[in-house]
Design a protein that fits this description.
The complex is a heterodimer. Chain A is built from 10 helices and 21 strands. By secondary structure, chain A is an alpha+beta fold. In chain A, the strands form 4 sheets. Chain A has a 6-stranded mixed sheet, with helices on both faces. In chain A, strands 13-12-11-14-20-21 form a 6-stranded antiparallel sheet. In chain A, α3 crosses α4. Chain B starts with a helix and ends in a 5-residue tail after the last helix. In chain B, α10 crosses α14 and α11 crosses α12. Helices cover 51% and strands 14% of the residues of chain B. In chain B, the strands form 2 sheets. Chain B has a 5-stranded antiparallel sheet with strand order 2-1-5-4-3, with helices on both faces. Chain B has a 5-stranded mixed sheet with strand order 7-8-6-9-10, with helices on both faces. Chain B is built from 14 helices and 10 strands. Chain B is of the alpha+beta class. Classes of the chains: A alpha+beta, B alpha+beta. At the A-B interface, β6 and α2 of A face α6, α7 and α11 of B.
């Protein structure tokens, strides 16, 4: 078992492309750490540097208390599972899982023990005699995981292992992976571009963009307290609404003014930082679940009511998404499925400013969460 | 086809050994035997033992031994009897049969044939004759994929690829040297490039996870005739070489997508040197430091957009404008103008090409 430490890691390619910049992170032993970000943000490169498949241009990487920059990948005590996993088609599940060990001349009894143990963890003991073509997508994915588990590594590195599965299977496998991590009690480093995967599985999330770490935190805090507009927009589905606004002060109160609307900021959202933005343009963000159309909200929060035109409604089953136009600003609301709002209708909505996030328009950094 | 050869040897052995001698295929079926009646019989009990030991096994009045003692063996020799003499006999029989198999493989092995074709070790006129002899489809869509390992491995990448592509009639794995392997694969049609890239990703992922080493893949052009296979292999080599110069962060290079890099790769170096000296005043390209080159790279990545680039570089817009002005003074090229930018981009590529001194194919 081991924690990892990444200190000032850079990856520069000879052509001048910088994939990762100043990456500093401490990864605890047995943690399920997820690196998330849009494609090209450097998350896979970071994982490959940890694996030893990419050279580190600058910085230090520790696994446990050993610096491993110059240690060959095979001696780093890691195992990898990639997106484009392929099983050997003419081998049984047992042989697929045992293949890597056989190549390394592991004793037969040991191979048998490890494969059977891994199969038990993955709940595929009954499939050991089957060939890959007789397996479902999820079962194949488990076999791919099994190939990594039999190596008994200190650290598992997973690079978008679920992205080849359909949505339903992916949701199932997310739960399975969390369970497997719990059973194995080993460090998992997982790369994905899917924020849902990150939020549901991670003990901690690293959000990356353009090769830089944007924020590292536990899922709940990342969602509630994003440090900038990028994180706020990337985490959460549907994504946070962003609206250009100006902060004004009237008789000691601070107002958020956008288009023809002027909404008073609650006291909980006012501090010295916010006051310093009075008279300036800012961007406010509000999550779709904090935009309401129910009568009880309209009655209890009359100060935050604005008029909106419904453009599209999407019934998702447990909730309904309303795509709204507020004086030219596009907003999404996540409301109860019982809503009576219809397309092309003008309705009243409540922006629950208790949950508003304010961002600096220039730097896009958070002023207040 | 090798069964005929085995049968010939088995008959000769019968003269010297007064016992039944024969050969089983990988399914345990007798394919050659000194006692002709036994051909077609099944000895499947022995398969699991042989699979686990890969050595001599005695069972039900016979002694067995695989002809090649390695995983994925194709044939097992057997001799009547379970005594000590049978063990000696089987060892000698296996030597004789292994030799004939090797002779057969060299002469009739399709893999060997494909290897000779892509490496141009066979006369063009002989290609079709040999293909017909081997029942090898000449007119099929095929592509050569070159797989280059970043270092030698103590575990065989060949075994891994052979296991990944077990269809010995359509997929051929060829070891070119210690780090290079070629996969010649039959594909559906010429528009298969997306699938091929996916396949290349699978190859890289499996080599990374099994061997813990980096691999690069060059995908040649899809050809429709065996005669053109050497060209596909050559294109795969060019793809890897061009990728090594101009696209260092990518692990998969497709010949069809090499773009301007392929054009530069084909230019004579003297012409390139002349071009550089004409574009830049003496030493001016060398006077650009890393930070300036990085700025230029980002400026190009962001489609010559000053605001977007300054945001990505975390610098003020005026700082970026100042840097671009500095470049203009040094080189005479204003990167905000498209025609100057493209000259600069090509010049940087030419410079990289000259520095890397690539192998020409």
């Amino acid at each position: 078992m081991a924690g990892l430490s990444l200190k000032g890691i850079y990856k520069r390619y000879p052509g001048g492309v910088v994939a990762v910049s100043d990456f500093n992170l401490e990864i605890e032993d047995k943690e399920f750490l997820v690196l998330v970000g849009p494609s090209g943000c450097g998350k896979s490169t970071t994982l490959r540097m940890i694996a030893g498949l990419e050279e580190i241009t600058e910085g230090e990487l520790y696994i446990g208390d050993r610096i491993v920059n110059d240690i060959a990948p095979k001696d780093r005590d890691i195992a990898m599972v990639f997106q484009n996993y392929a099983l050997y088609p003419h081998m049984t599940v047992f042989d697929n899982m045992a293949f890597g060990l056989k190549l390394r001349k592991t004793p037969k009894d040991e191979i048998k023990r490890r494969v059977e143990e891994a199969a038990k963890i993955l709940d595929i003991s009954h499939l050991l005699d089957r060939k890959p073509k007789a397996l479902s997508g999820g079962q194949r994915q488990r076999v791919a995981l099994g190939r990594a588990i039999v190596r008994e590594p200190k650290v598992f590195l997973l690079d978008e292992p679920l992205s080849n599965l359909d949505a339903k299977l992916r949701a199932q496998m997310r739960t399975e992976l969390a369970k497997i991590h719990h059973n194995l009690e080993t460090t998992f480093i997982y790369v994905t571009h899917d924020q849902t995967e990150a939020m549901t599985m991670a003990t901690r999330i690293v959000v990356m963009k353009d090769g830089f770490i944007q924020q590292v935190d536990v899922p709940n805090k990342l969602y509630k307290y994003p440090c900038n507009m990028f994180v706020a927009g990337f985490i959460g589905s549907p994504q946070m609404n962003f609206v250009d606004a100006v902060l004004t002060e009237k008789s000691g109160d601070i107002y958020l003014e956008f288009k023809n609307n002027s909404l008073k900021l609650p006291d909980s959202k006012i501090n010295d930082d916010v006051k310093s933005y009075v008279g300036k343009e800012i961007i406010f963000g509000i999550r779709p679940e904090h935009v309401h159309d129910e009568e009880r909200y309209l009655e209890s929060m009359p100060d935050y009511v604005v008029e909106a035109k419904v453009e599209v409604t999407e019934l998702m089953g447990a909730e309904t998404f309303l795509y709204l136009d507020v004086d030219g600003e596009k907003l999404t609301a996540k409301v109860a499925p019982t809503t009576t709002a219809k397309a092309d209708e003008n309705i009243k909505i409540v922006l629950s400013l208790e949950h508003v996030h304010l961002f600096d328009k220039e730097t896009q950094k958070t002023i207040i969460n | 086809m090798s069964n005929r050869f085995f049968q010939g040897v088995v008959y000769q052995l019968k003269e010297s050994i007064d016992r039944t001698v024969g050969v089983l295929d990988e399914n345990g079926i007798v394919v050659a035997c000194s006692d002709l009646i036994k051909i077609g019989e099944k000895h499947d009990n022995v398969l699991s033992f042989i699979n686990s030991t890969l050595d001599t096994v005695k069972d039900d009045g016979y002694t067995y031994k695989p002809i090649v003692q390695a995983p994925g063996f194709e044939y097992i020799a057997f001799v009547e009897g379970e005594d000590e003499l049978s063990e000696k006999y089987i060892s000698l029989i296996v030597i004789a049969l292994a030799n004939i198999k090797q002779y057969y493989d060299e002469k009739f092995d399709k893999n060997n044939f494909v290897k000779n074709v892509i490496l141009n070790n066979i006369l063009p006129g002989d290609v079709y004759i040999k293909a017909r002899e081997l029942h090898f489809e000449s007119d099929a869509f095929r592509v050569a994929i070159l797989i280059r390992l970043s270092e030698k491995s103590d575990v065989s990448a060949y075994d891994i690829l052979q296991s990944l592509f077990p269809d010995k009639q359509k997929d051929f794995i060829i070891n070119v040297n210690e780090t290079d392997l070629v996969l010649v694969k039959e594909v559906k049609d010429t528009n298969d490039n997306k699938d091929l890239e996916k396949l290349a990703k699978s190859i890289i992922d499996i080599i990374s996870s099994e061997l813990y080493i980096k691999a690069y893949v060059g995908i040649g052009t899809i050809v429709d005739n065996i005669r053109d296979l050497p060209r596909s292999f050559n294109d795969a080599q060019v793809a890897l070489e061009v990728g090594k110069i101009f696209d260092t962060e990518n692990h998969i290079m497709t010949y069809d997508n090499l773009g301007i890099g392929r054009l530069i790769y084909q230019l004579p170096t003297t012409l390139c040197e002349t071009f550089l000296s004409e574009i830049f005043k003496k030493g001016s390209i060398e006077s650009l430091d890393y930070e300036t080159l990085f700025t230029i790279q980002k400026f190009f990545e962001n489609n010559l957009n000053v605001s977007e680039t300054s945001r990505k570089l975390f610098v003020h817009r005026n700082t970026l404008v100042y840097r671009l002005e500095k470049i203009r003074k040094l080189t005479g090229l204003d990167l905000r103008r498209f025609d100057h930018a493209i000259v600069f981009k090509v010049a940087l590529m030419v410079k990289r090409y000259l520095v890397s001194n690539p192998t020409k194919f």
